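wait is this the right file?? whatever heres the structure
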């Protein structure tokens, strides 16, 4: 009798948490600014599916992102509730001072140092799926995974994805859709539309209880043409239709689902590029070989769009650190260089940024860091892109988006300003899961 009573009491304690567990569809629109939805009419945007979240669910007035405000660090924070310093994905590209990785990115989930929402959902007994989410190759806890990866755009990239996706899922969905899956390097609107079709098909075929879907064309267009341009607005209106299809498919499969729509960062319009390699070469911190390639280095910028981590080959060498700081201060003293701030290790740590960086530069709006273009490239030039992010978090133009609707979510609720680290624990709570390494508490969506 005592064992039966104990079992009954344990079961009673568990039932409420099970009853609160709801399926979640998490959609990310890279580069979506909250104002594009909240001020859609003012900005001349027809996005009824996105606007629906404002009246039928809850939304943040803005989301404060992470350092740097780049796609991969931000999406990993969205999946973990931790800052880059804790989760380990501190940039888009891995640090590669001699260029041997051929532009490799943080594609591999093994670089994430804390549990993800996929793992949390799986431990809670939910099935999971993924369409193109950043840092998802070999991610733990994903039942059906089509991870994001590319190398060159050669047809062999499709074979690479075949090898890295959940066995059989790509061929199965291609047969159902009647078309090949989009190549990983494809950031175009047709690429997003194809991934949307695959996500809808995955929902219909497998009904994952937690599904992540990543759409990238808006970010691509804002880099190429700039934010607030007719081209960027046209892409967002097309993405709105993809969102409508995804929401309809999810509600058909799971009428009790919660739909969460997020972005990773906003955008600044740009005009100038600073080549940080130039002064580091001139100061002798970077030594080049006869072909203009990096032969050795003492200090090196790790560029991140609107900011740059400054790395030292010998982090404990105080003399080199002092020389580098003097160089950075000289560069920042000239407003023409567009350097807004030079943060030291303590300041970087306070912002949750790369713990390996000796210093971190933040650029002024309009300026971007330039890639290495050889030994004769000038310090300053015209930016090759019209829009950028990657700056320090905080400014209005860099705010990210959070909108939710579905079971248990209050309607027309303004959540105010939200810390990006609070999003993952909120979604975990909805799914009856837990993220103990998250740095913020879950958001109250009910009142």
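ok assuming it is, sequence goes like this
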């Amino acid at each position: 009798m005592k064992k039966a009573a104990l079992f009954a009491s344990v079961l009673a304690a568990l039932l409420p948490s099970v009853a609160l567990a709801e399926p979640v569809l998490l959609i990310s629109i890279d580069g979506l600014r909250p104002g594009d939805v909240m001020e859609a009419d003012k900005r001349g945007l027809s996005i009824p599916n996105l606007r629906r979240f404002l009246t039928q669910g809850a939304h943040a007035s803005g989301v404060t992102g992470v350092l740097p405000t780049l796609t991969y660090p931000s999406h990993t924070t969205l999946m973990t509730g931790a800052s880059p310093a804790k989760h380990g994905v501190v940039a888009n590209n891995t640090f590669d001072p001699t260029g041997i990785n051929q532009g490799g990115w943080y594609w591999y989930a093994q670089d994430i140092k804390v549990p993800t929402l996929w793992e949390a959902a799986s431990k809670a007994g939910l099935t999971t799926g993924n369409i193109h989410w950043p840092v998802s190759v070999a991610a733990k806890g994903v039942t059906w995974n089509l991870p994001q990866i590319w190398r060159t755009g050669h047809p062999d990239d499709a074979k690479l994805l075949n090898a890295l996706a959940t066995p059989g899922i790509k061929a199965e969905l291609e047969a159902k859709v009647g078309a090949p899956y989009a190549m990983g390097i494809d950031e175009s609107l047709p690429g997003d539309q194809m991934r949307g079709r695959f996500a809808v098909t995955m929902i219909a075929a497998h009904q994952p209880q937690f599904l992540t879907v990543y759409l990238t064309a808006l970010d691509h267009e804002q880099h190429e043409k700039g934010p607030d341009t007719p081209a960027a607005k046209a892409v967002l209106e097309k993405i709105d239709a993809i969102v409508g299809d995804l929401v309809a498919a999810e509600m058909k499969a799971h009428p009790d689902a919660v739909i969460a729509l997020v972005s990773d960062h906003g955008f600044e319009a740009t005009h100038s590029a600073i080549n940080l390699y130039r002064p580091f070469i001139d100061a002798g911190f970077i030594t080049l070989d006869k072909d203009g390639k990096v032969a050795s280095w003492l200090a090196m910028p790790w560029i991140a769009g609107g900011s740059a981590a400054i790395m030292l080959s010998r982090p404990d060498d105080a003399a080199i650190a002092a020389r580098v700081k003097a160089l950075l201060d000289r560069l920042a003293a000239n407003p023409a260089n567009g350097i807004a701030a030079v943060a030291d290790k303590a300041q970087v740590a306070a912002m949750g940024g790369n713990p390996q960086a000796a210093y971190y530069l933040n650029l002024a709006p309009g300026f971007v860091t330039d890639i290495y273009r050889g030994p004769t490239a000038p310090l300053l030039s015209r930016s090759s892109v019209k829009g950028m992010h990657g700056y320090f978090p905080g400014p209005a133009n860099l705010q990210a988006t959070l909108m939710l609707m579905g079971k248990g979510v209050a309607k027309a609720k303004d959540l105010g300003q939200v810390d990006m680290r609070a999003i993952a624990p909120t979604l975990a709570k909805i799914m009856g899961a837990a993220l103990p390494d998250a740095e913020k508490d879950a958001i109250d969506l009910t009142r």
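The chain has two domains: 21-267+395-430, 272-384. so i think its the right one actually
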